[in-house]
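Q: What would this complex look like in 3D?
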Amino acid sequence: MTITVLNQGGKTALTGCAASSCGSSADALAQLPEALRAKINNHPCFSEDAHHHYARMHVAVAPACNIQCHYCNRKYDCSNESRPGVVSEVLTPDQAVKKTLAVAAAIPQMTVLGIAGPGDPLANPARTFATFRQLTAKAPDIKLCVSTNGLALPEVIDELCQHNIEHVTITINCVDPDIGAQIYPWIFWNHRRIKGRKAAEILIAQQQKGLELLVARGILVKVNSVLIPGINDEHLKEVSRIVKAKGAFLHNVMPLISEPEHGTFYGLTGQRGPTSAELQTLQDACAGDMRMMRHCRQCRADAVGMLGEDRGQEFTLDKIEQLDVDYAAAMVQRAQVHAAIEAKRAAPAPITPTAPLVTLNPQFRTSRPVLMAVASGGGGLVNQHFGEANEFLIYEASNRGVRLVGARTAGRYCHGPAQCDDSSAQRFAKILRVLAGCEVVLCAKIGYEPWQQLEAAGIIPNSEHALESIETAVAAVYQELSASGRFSVDSVATQRRSA
Ligand code: CLF
Ligand code: SF4
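A: Here is my prediction, written as structure tokens for the whole assembly.
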């Protein structure tokens, strides 16, 4: 967890990490050894700070899977790395390479190409490695990334290393086969279908062996875990402890998605996903053991763009087939864009005129932690109109400082005058549900009507910190409102009560 504290000059000055729970935001990043920093500096998933500046894309070249998870329906994207929704197009490796080059030229801040489905990349080794092989040769400035269930991992480690892959994600939901048997009905192993506890036992052994082999070779491993209330919630603390002890770099606990309409086993049998509060509580409990990822968006297996946005429709096959990309020229432009981003990131934080000239710690001991939702279009700034925000970044401010605790998708409130009708009330109701527990919304601008509705729901809208750095703005608002007693320990906000 990164703590941001304001100094006497009002700028972000002191940042520190709570014990061993460092995330990988700007300040935690600066504290890493140089070699490690270079690996994650522009990877939007492995570095919280990088996700404000850099984009990723996935190519859906891996349709088959070698296991069954109770939260997956093959008609939908791999839940390891996606939100529900069919993959628009499964690509051949040649198509995937063409698409990657086209996206990299059009979105120069795209630094990472991941293969994450729609099945398991390593259950489709020929397609996955053919894609990596071509991209290693044609686009050496793009980082390659892969996400797997781990069953086939130990046997392909040598090939992974040949493609200079520095980042691998393994989805590990358990280390106990009895729990595994409740998550995985079967695996396909050595040409046979194996069911029940035995299947889970083999999968767990392969995942752990794969993790150890990757770490031994210096590859950064992120472990994704799906939080399934009543099945592996308590157990994930043990998972976190074990994978950290084995050298995993980051742990990403994601909420189960189990809407009945997706047709998954869990969806159809009424297994619920966790609430935002349950997710945060577990992430905090695991954070004592290792770095936690808080900014995952559970992307589609064909996602394109910054985390939280999907520009896939701009790069459909019919569109890219017509393109002739000069990638040598694109690489020059990409390098310039990356240099400009890095120059901006290296610049000292501007002094914020609205920030009180005090530190948070001594003065506001009597204030309780508060969640604030931030509308941001990227760059780590409060720079989005409330009505245009499809998602909100959720920050917690407390007398220990400011930290990102998640991102929640709400859907845009404003769709233009044509849709300013009854449907806007429904959209607002959804936004309120998504903002449960938040007491402040920070945005660049907000209309009169949503302002009033937020206030009526007990949430304070604030657009006074437009274009400021998010952490500085959240800290400033916390101080302002703490000074007024709004967040005193004995106060309970309306919104908090209703959450
Ligand atoms: Fe893709 Fe995954 Fe690589 Fe990222 S996603 S393969 S590590 S490039 Fe990132 Fe998306 Fe979360 Fe995955 S936000 S679902 S963690
Ligand atoms: Fe689905 Fe991915 Fe699980 Fe395979 S590993 S069953 S594709 S969620």
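A: To summarize the key features: The pocket of FE(8)-S(7) cluster (ligand 1) is lined by residues 45, 56, 58, 81, 112, 114, 116, 145, 147, 169, 222, 252, 296-299, 307 (CB under 6 Å). The CA atoms of residues 33 and 39 lie 10 Å apart.
Q: Very helpful, thank you.
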